[in-house]
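note to self: dont lose this again. the chain is below, predicted strucutre after it. 283 aa total, dont forget to put it in the shared folder this time
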Amino acid sequence: MYDVALTIAACVRSGTRADVAWMLSPHASEEALALTPGGGRIGVLASGAFDGVLADVAARQLPEGRLVQHEVTEVEAALSGLPAGSLAEFLVVPADLFPQELWAHLLQRDSVEITCHLESDVVNRVDVATAESGGGATVVREADRVVTSLSPTTRLVVAGRGPMAEALIRQGELLGWKVAHDARPEVVTGLAATLSPLDAIVVMGHDVEASSRCLMAALDSDSGYVGALGSREMQQARADWLSYRDVTDLGRVHGPAGLDIGGRAPAEVAVAIAAEIIATLAS
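---
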């Protein structure tokens, strides 16, 4: 739900109708889908397998939320990875039914507890409270309510390509982080803009201008960890490129990225970088 908070907050401010859909079972997830009149869809939920089902509910523009139970089809199973014939449950709730402070909490990447009060399959009230950080998402079902607890997962942006980038991507995924990667400065700039102090970005690459633009975007972000890979000559070339553009404070940059554990192979360097990220974000 963190990924759609900015869109939903904008809709609420402008008075635009929006519905928020998320999965309750067979497993909880941070993922959510924002649905607007006219077929607008923002966010990714279960690889898009159930977008049509959820959009049909949102299209009714009901004043209350709905608990949706749906039997997974063969096609949906192929997309979502859920067993065909199993029962999936979702909530689809109008954005204006949530307390407005929820969106501010999500934009700040706070841990939250969302309680949806039920009468049969109708959600008639939503309460929100901050919660202790737990990592990921959990759902507790009771007869008259559903409590969804959300805690943000670390996001890692890998700005670069090649064996080192691939090793770091795999390491991040192994740790359960949400990993995004690209080498194009314009794409990295967009990714970096969404990062918070709970997140990390690592810049690499042999093209001075492209990697320097990525590093500048990283320094403009709120990322809690900014790392840069490259030789001393490359690090200095990037510093010179940034200095020419009046970016001289590189104190946030861990360069070369990674703890000094003597690793040389891509997988070893990836472990060293991941360890430094964990230590930095925990400090």
